[in-house]
Amino acid sequence: MTKRNEGNGPIVFSRLSPAKTTIVYQTYWRFAAERQAIFFRKIEKAPFPWTTDPILKRYKFTNAYRASDRVSQYLIKNVIYRKPNSIREVFFRILLFKLFNKIETWRLLEHRIGQITYEEYSFERYDQILNGALRKGCIFSGAYIMPSGTGTFGHRRKHRNILRLIEKMMNEEVPLKVAEARSMQQVFEILLSYPMIGDFLAYQLTTDINYSEITNFSEMEFVVPGPGSRDGIKKCFESLGGLNEVDVIQVMAERQDEEFNNLGLNFRSLWGRRLQLIDCQNLFCEVDKYARLAHPEIKGRSKRRRIKQIYKFNNEQIDYWYPPKWGLNDKIAT
In terms of Cα–Cα distance, which of 157, 161, 193, 155 is closest to 174? Predict the structure, then answer.
C-alpha cells in the first residue's frame, strides 16, 4: 500500500520502506505508457509523428521493453535463432555481435565472411575486415562504452582486444559453464570475472544470452542497475528510505499495474508480458534523459542537461519476433 498526497505531491511507500518520491516518479509511469503506445502506433501504421509529446517527438528513446528495440530484435532473429545452433556457436555469435553492438558491423562481417561460425573463426581475417572498416567510420555502438583492453591483451586497437577476449572465453569453455549455471546471477558472475567486462555490461550480456536456449531464467530473477538507471532513480526518489536501488527496481516491477491504474494510464503490455526487471531498469535510464527537459529542476547524479540523440525516422520495417519460449509470437500473428 502507498499513501498519496493530493495532486502531484510525493508518494510515500508505507510497505517495506518510507521511500519518498518526486514528481518524476509519476513521469516514469507516464513515459512508459506513452512510449509503449508509440510502439503500437508504429505497428498499426498510424501516421508519423506517433505522439503529441514534444520531447518524445524530437528525441530518441528506447522502447519500454528492451527486447523490442531494433538492435535486440536483430540479435534475436538474425544472430541467435539460426544455425548452427550448438551452445558454443550461439554463445560465440552473441558475444561477437554484442561486444560491438552495431548491426552494420555484423552485416559487414557476414558480407565479407559469409556464415559466421566459431569453427571457421580466424583472428587475422576478422581483424583485417574490422581494421578496414575503422578507416571509414565507427564499428561500435554508443549504447555503452567498453574499456580498450590494451593493458590486458596488449593490442592498441580495441576490436583486436575484443576478439582476444572472445577467444579466451571460448578456450576456457565459458559457453558450457554458462549453460550449466543455476541462476542469472551465476551467469553474471562468470562473465564479470573476465577482463573488459564490468557490472553493467555483464548484466546486459546475461540478458542477451537468456534470450537464447542456452539459459532459461525468468527476467524477474535478477537485476543490476546501470549508471543511467541510478540517475533516474535519484530523480524519481527524494529518499530511498531503507531500500537500495535493486529493491526500488523490484518494487517498480511489482507495482506496475497498480501505478498505471492510479494514474489512469492505459498501458498496453507486450501481448500480455508485463514489464520485467530489465525493462524497469532501462526505463529509469530513459526517464533520466526525459527529465532533463521535462523536469530540469530535479537533479540526478550526473550534471547532464541535454539529450544528445535526435530521433531520425527509419523506414526499415521490423517484423517483431521474440524468443519462442516467451510464447508471444503466435499472439503477434493473431
Answer: 193
pTM of the model: 0.93
Q: What per-residue string of b and e applies to 243-276 under the rule 16 or more CB within 10 Å gives b? A: bebeebbbbbbbbbeebbeeeebebeebeebbbb
Strands ordered across the beta sheet of 11-13: 2-4, 11-13, 20-21, 237-239
pLDDT tens-digit series, residues 244-300? 999 999 999 999 999 999 999 999 999 999 999 999 999 999 999 999 999 999 988
Degrees to nearest 5, angle at CA 302 with 312 and 9: 90
Q: What is the DSSP letter of 11?
A: E
Name 282's Cβ contacts closer than 8 Å, sequence gap at least 6. Answer: 62, 66, 229
Q: What is the total residue count of the chain?
A: 334
Q: Are 289 and 310 within 8 A, CB to CB?
A: no
Q: pLDDT tens across 27-48, in order?
A: 999 999 999 999 999 999 999 8
Question: In terms of Cα–Cα distance, which of 62, 63, 72, 118 is closest to 212?
Answer: 72
Which are the contacts of 66, defined by CB distance < 8 A and separation ≥ 6? 72, 207, 278, 279, 282
β-strands 237-239, 11-13: how paired?
unpaired
Is 216 buried (19+), middle (13-18) or exposed (0-12) by CB count in 10 A?
exposed
Residue linked to cell 535463432? 81
Euclidean distance between CA atoms 289 and 292, whole angstroms = 5
Query: Residue ranges of the domains in the chain?
Result: 2-64+224-333, 82-169
* Single-letter residue type at 19: A
